Amino acid sequence: MNNFFYQVSINFQRIIFRNLRFLFFNLALPIAFYLLFTKVMTYNMSADALTAWNSDYFVSMVLYSSLMSSVITVANTLLDDQENSFDLFIVLSPISRFQYYASMIVVFFTLSMSAVVSLGIVASLVNHVTISFITWLVVLFIVPLVSIPLIFIGIMVSLTGTSNVVNLLSNLVVFPMAIASGLWWPLEIMPDWLKAIGTNLPTYFGSSLVKAVIHHQSVSIQTILGLLIWSILGFVGIRLLLHFRKKQELLTI
């Protein structure tokens, strides 16, 4: 257990504390989108609709921040570790590969929680979004959990090849997923075929769960099952890709 916490501390230092610009942009972009869309897309809205929009878009930008850090940052961080032979250090150290991935997940859980706090402060101060303290704590706990399937996707992307391929795939995953699942624009304005895709994405299930918590509504079984199925698919996908990579390495020996 001490080895695991030591690995977590190393990851915090090399991913966040030695790269504070990354932390700034990871939080600043969703905040900028939140301020833009809550001030531009609110023309002629009634007071009740505006209140709901401000809180719902807060959730959307929290999920968008989690999506970026879980896919783009996870994929590029793991790829850098592969190219710089840091993963070889993991093989030779007492840390297992499972603990290595788990320590990464702890770091990116913290990033998701940072997005909740920073966006929550902006939403509260700028748009007067009011959420009870208990609800804040629940959201702070739930957002990292709903990002698990997204982190699994990021791990899978990191296993696909070179930096060019990883960067291309990261962008092809993040931005279409953000649009299709309604994180940028409401699903109501999208064509039916895109709605059918968007309502089955992990980001849609995650935002639906958090919105239900904020509005004190019941959470549907479909939402829980959707997140669970995506998590299982992600875990299985990682195992298959690792198995495939190992077979390739054995063939090249």
TrEMBL record:
A single cellular component GO annotation: membrane
Membrane topology summary: Multi-pass membrane protein
Location relative to the cell: Membrane
Domain ABC-2 type transporter transmembrane: residue ranges: 16-211
InterPro entries assigned: ABC2_TM, Nod_factor_ABC_transporter
Residues passing through the membrane, by range: 20-37, 57-79, 100-125, 131-153, 165-185, 219-242
Pfam families registered for this protein in UniProt: ABC2_membrane
Keyword ATP-binding applies: no
Signal peptide feature range: none
Key words of the record: Membrane, Transmembrane, Transmembrane helix
Gene Ontology MF annotations: ABC-type transporter activity
Name assigned to this protein: ABC-2 type transporter transmembrane domain-containing protein
Species, as recorded: Enterococcus phoeniculicola ATCC BAA-412
